[in-house]
Amino acid sequence: MTEFVIIMLVKMFVIFGAVMLTMTYITLAERKILGYMQIRPGPNRVGPWGLLQPIADGIKLFLKEDIIPDNASKAVFVIAPAMALIPAVMTIAVVPFGPEVSILGRNVTLFMADINIGILYIFAVSSIGVYGIVLAGWSSESKYSLLGGLRSSAQMISYELSMGFAIVGVIMMSQSLSMVKLIEAQKGVWFIIPQFLGFAIYITAAIAELNRTPFDLPEGESELVSGYFTEYSSMKYAMFMLAEYINIITVSGIVTTLYLGGWHGPVLPPLAWFVIKLLIVVFFMIWVRATLPRLRYDQLMTLGWKILLPASIVNILLTAVFMTVFG
Amino acid sequence: MAETKNMILNMGPQHPSTHGVLRLILELDGETVVKLTPEIGYLHRGVEKLGENLTYHQFIPLTDREDYIASLSNNLAYCMTVEKLLGLEIPPRAMVARVLLTELQRIASHLIWLGTFGLDIGAMSLFFYCMRERETILDIFEACAGARLTINYFDIGGLRKDLPVGFEKQVRDFIAIFPERMKNDYERIFQDNKIVRIRTEGVGIISKEDAIDLGLSGPLLRSCGVPWDVRKSNPYCGYENYEFDIPTGKTGDVFDRYLVRMEEMRQSLKLVQQALDRLPGGAFLADDPKICLPPKQKVMTEMESLIHHFKIVSEGFEPPVAEVYHSIETPRGELGFYIVSDGSNKPYRLRFRPPSFVNLESLAKMAEGKLIGDLIAIIGALDPVMGEVDR
How far, in Å, CA of B254 to CA of B42, rounded? Predict the structure, then answer.
C-alpha cells in the first residue's frame, strides 16, 4: 500500500511537472513557429533562441498588479480562473503517455489512472472548464467580457456535442471507454484510417473547444479586445493562459490516443512515439492559427449544428454498417 | 416574457480594430448592431486653422500628418493646388516622378490596408507579408527624401531634391518581385480561402445610388460599379498619357472592395513601370526664383540666390488674390484642397476635403443590422485614416 502511494505521488509530480514544462515551452514554440511562418524571428532576446522567454513571461505576469474591477462580483471573478485551470489539469490524469514499463524492478504504468470510463471522464471534467470562461465573462462587469462569455457558452455547447458524437465511432470499434484499451485496439491499424471522418470532425470541434483560431471568437481580439479575460491581469490572467495551453496538450493527447495509435510505433520506445505524435498535433494547431482567419459568430454556429453534427451522425451510421457487414 | 433591453457598447476610441481613434457608439441586440453612431474628433489638431497662420511652404509638412498612410499623395494634392493658384509650370521630370512616387505610395497604402484588413478578420500572417513589400517601397522613399512615413518630398514647383542615385534600380527590383508576391503570398493564402470568402462576400453592401448620394469616392465607390477616378475623369500630372484601367466591382460588398484594391495595385505597378520608362532628365524644380528654393550650392556661392532663399524662408511668396480648388485621387479617394488667397503670404482660408471623412459617413448605412464581426470587416474595408478624418 505504501509503495502504491509513493509510486502514485512520484508519478503525479513527474507528470504534472512534465506537462507544465511542456506547456511553457509550447508557448515559446508557438511564438517561434508563428514567427518563422510570418517571416520574423520570434522571441530571441531572453536566453539563446529565446529559451528563457517562458520563464521571463512567468515572472512578468507574477509581478504585475492584480486588478479586480470595482463593479465585478469579486468572489466569482476570483474563482473563475481557477475553474478554468483545475479541470484542465485534472484531465491529464487519464491521458496514457505510455504502457506499463519496469522501473527499478517495479512495474509502473506511464499514466495516472486507467479508469474504465476514461473518455466520459474527460468530457465530464473538461465541460466544467467552460464555466470558468462563462463566469469570467459574466463577473467582470465589462461589456466585451460579457459578449465573450456569451459567445463561448454557445460555442462550447454546440461543439461538445459533435465532439462527443465523433468519438462514438472509435468507441464502437474498440468496444471500450478506457483510454488504454483504446490504444491497445489500435495495434494493427490506427483509427485515423477507418475513422478519418470522425478524426476530421473531432479535431475541428477540439480546436473550437480550445477557442483557437479560426474559432477564437470568445477572445477575438479585433472584435472583443480580449473577450472574456479583458479585465483580468497578473496571475489570474496567467491562469487562463495556463488552462488554454494545458488544454492544448490534453486535446493533442486525446487525439493521439483516439486516432493516431497512441504509443504504437516502430523502433523508438512507446513514450517517445506518444510525445512525437502529440507534438505533431500541437504543431498542426499552431499551423492552422498562422493560416486561417476567424469565422463569424453565426457561421460558427452553422458549421457546428448544420455540418459537423450531421456529419458525425453519418459517421456513426457508416461505422455501424461497416462493422455489421465486415464483422 | 421578460423585457429585454439593448446594450450600448462604446467601441473605441481605444480598440484594436477602429484604425486609430474612431469611436463607435453601438446599440446591440445580442451581437446584432441595431444602431451605430460614429464619433470623431479624437485626433483633431486644427490643421486647417494652422494653415492660415503658416506660409505656403511651411504648410507642406503638415499635409504629411493628415493621411499619414499615404503622405506623398497629400503633399501632391496641396502642392498642385498652390501651383494652380500661382499658375506655375512644372518641369517634366518632376511630373513623371510625381506620378511614379504617388503610385508607389498607393501600393504601399493598399498594402497596409490589406494587412490590417487581414488582421481585422483574424488572418494574422498576411500582415507580415504585406509589411515586407511595403518595406521595400519605404526604402525607395527613404532614399529619395530621407523619411519613410512623413515623406514631405514634393515641393511647390516640383520635387524637394532630385531623385537619388540608384533610384531606377531600386524601383525595377520592386517591379520584378511584386506581381509574384501578390499572387503567391496574398491571393493564394487569402483570396482563395473559404473562410475569407464567407466573411466578406455579401457583407456591407452599399448600392450605387447610395454611394453617389453619400459622396463616396475611391475604391469604395468603384466597388459599387461606378468607374469614377479623378485620374481619368479629371487628369492631372499627365495621367492622360498613361495607359491604365479603372477596376470596378459589381455588388459593392467587402469582397469587391478587396478585389478593386488588389487590381488597383496591379494597375499602379503598371503606371510605375510606364513612368520609369519615360522618366526624362533635366530640372526637378520649376525655374522661378521667387517661389522655388534655390539649390544649396548656389545659396552658398551667389548673392542673388542667398537673398531669394532668405526671402522665401522668412516670408514666403505672395500669390495673386484668387480661390482655387484642386483634387487628386489618393489611395482612399478624392482629396481636394481649397485655398482662398487674399494676396498675402499666408492663405486666407485653407480647407480640404478628406476622402476618409466622407467615406466614413457610409458606415452606419452599411453596418446597421449586421453582426459585430461584420462591422469589423466593414470598417476594415472602408480603410479610414483618422488623421485625415479629424484633421
Answer: 26
Residue A156, SS3?
A: helix
Is A17 a member of any domain?
no
Contacts for A187-190: CB closer than 8 Å, 24+ residues apart: A187/A264, A190/A259, A190/A260, A190/A261, A190/A264
A216, A225, A293: residue with CB nearest B16 = A225
Cell digits of residue B39: 464619433
The residue segments making up the domain with residue A84 are 70-100+110-326
Q: Is the minimum CB–CB distance between A286 and chain B shorter than 8 Å?
A: no
A46 in contact with B at a CB cutoff of 8 Å? Answer: no
Distance from CA of B376 to the nearest CA of A (A): 7
Give the integer Cα–Cα distance in Å for A239 and A232.
10
Burial-class residue A235 by CB neighbours within 10 Å (0-12, 13-18, 19+). Answer: middle
State whether residue B328 is helix, strand or coil: strand
Asked if A207 reaches chain B (Cβ–Cβ under 8 Å), the answer is no
Has residue A24 been placed in a domain? no
For chain A, what is the domain count? 1
Cell 462576400 maps to which residue?
B201
Note which residues in 134-163 of chain A have CB less than 8 A from chain B: 143-144, 147, 150-151
Q: At A20, give phi and psi (nearest 5°).
A: -65, -40
Query: Nearest 5°: phi and psi at B158?
Result: 150, -130
Distant-in-sequence contacts of A277-280, Cβ < 8 A, 24+ apart:
A278/A249, A278/A252, A278/A253, A279/A252
CATH fold, domain B47-390, is: Cytochrome-c3 Hydrogenase; chain B (1.10.645)
Which residue on chain A is closest to B186 by alpha carbon? A291
CB contact B15 to A (< 8 Å): yes
ipTM score of the complex? 0.79
Pairwise CA distance, residues A288 & A282, whole Å: 10
What is the residue-level pLDDT of chain A in tens, covering all 327 positions?
787 788 788 888 888 888 888 888 888 888 888 888 888 888 888 878 888 888 888 888 888 888 888 887 888 888 888 888 888 888 888 888 777 777 776 777 767 777 777 788 888 888 888 888 888 888 887 888 888 888 888 887 788 888 888 888 888 887 877 777 777 777 777 777 777 888 888 888 888 878 777 877 766 666 677 777 777 888 888 888 888 888 888 888 888 888 887 777 777 777 788 888 888 888 988 888 888 888 888 888 888 888 888 888 888 888 888 888 876
